[in-house]
């Protein structure tokens, strides 16, 4: 078991998310940066569906109440065990009673703590993911909370050289395909989407990334019935400023979707700090 001592801005449990519930209005959720979540699990030999602890901008302190193997991936935080620096991006053994602390990362937002066996909080609708939009799932972690360790082990821990680290990027490029309402926008707006250096707003979270730049204008004012949303959808509200939907996006929305970001590019956006320059590029047909 693990006792949470401090959480920083936000700490939640995340696994693969709630697949198959979107038609009932339940978001998928899951980790903001799925590759880093998966990497942390691989570093301790966990099964793919094991839950990790997703930590926003460091500040986490936990006490191990039993011996455990752990690893940290994602935003590159300083890691200390009983006050002594230990490796980031590698498996580390903690004795019972050891205290782990994470510093604020110099860049990136989300770090992932994996413990061998996974975090065994009570699942809801088949997932241990915290859904910050609907409130479904275990609530965010709080100081004093004790989290059990499960048994979702797949094999031996991966070598540390499997690490794929984040880069300090202040300018990111995202591939896009036309959205279902692409033709609702003027030709100028369609070109502005891919020619503008957009700025990532501070009003960004697990649900969506908000961008600022020139206004994207519709050909004519139109009413849109609520329709389904997928991860990566770029909605344009009446302000004309695009919103890119991330891991915790709602399953439906009422603003037109001008384009959709390739899902494999979204972790880079999810890890970007406010002020980052975001550019969209058209995805070549038939290319991954």
UniProtKB/TrEMBL annotation:
The keyword Cell wall biogenesis/degradation does not apply. Gene3D superfamilies: Cyclophilin-like (2.40.100.10). The keyword Transmembrane does not apply. Residues 23-288 form the Carboxyltransferase domain. It holds the Pfam family CT_A_B. GO terms for molecular function: ATP binding; hydrolase activity. InterPro entries: CT_A_B, Cyclophilin-like_dom_sf, PxpC. Keywords: ATP-binding, Hydrolase, Nucleotide-binding. NCBIfam families: urea_amlyse_rel (TIGR00724). This is Biotin-dependent carboxylase uncharacterized domain-containing protein.
């Amino acid at each position: 078991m693990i006792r949470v001592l401090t959480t920083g801005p936000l700490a939640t449990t995340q696994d693969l998310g709630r697949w198959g519930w979107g038609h009932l209005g339940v978001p998928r959720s899951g980790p903001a940066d799925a590759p880093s979540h998966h990497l942390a699990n691989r570093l301790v030999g966990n099964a793919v569906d094991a839950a990790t602890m997703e930590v926003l901008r460091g500040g986490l302190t936990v006490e191990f109440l039993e011996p455990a193997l752990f690893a940290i991936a994602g935003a590159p935080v300083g890691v200390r065990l009983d006050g002594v620096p230990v490796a980031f991006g590698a498996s580390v053994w903690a004795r019972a009673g050891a205290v782990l602390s994470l510093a604020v990362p110099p860049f990136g937002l989300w770090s992932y703590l994996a413990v061998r066996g996974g975090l065994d909080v009570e699942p809801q609708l088949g997932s241990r993911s915290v859904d910050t939009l609907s409130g479904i799932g275990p609530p965010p972690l709080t100081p004093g909370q004790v989290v059990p360790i499960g048994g979702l082990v797949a094999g031996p821990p991966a070598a540390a050289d499997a690490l794929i680290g984040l880069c300090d990027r202040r300018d990111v490029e995202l591939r896009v395909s036309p959205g279902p309402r692409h033709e609702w926008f003027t030709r100028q707006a369609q070109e502005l989407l891919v020619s503008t250096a957009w700025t990532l707003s501070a009003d960004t979270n697990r649900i969506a990334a908000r961008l600022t730049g020139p206004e994207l204008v519709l050909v004519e004012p139109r009413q849109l019935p609520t329709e389904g949303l997928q991860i990566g959808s770029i909605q344009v509200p009446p302000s004309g400023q695009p919103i890119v939907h991330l891991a915790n996006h709602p399953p439906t929305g009422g603003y037109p979707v001008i384009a959709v970001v390739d899902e494999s590019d979204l972790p880079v956006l999810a890890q970007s700090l406010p002020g980052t320059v975001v550019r969209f590029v058209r995805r070549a047909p038939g290319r991954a």
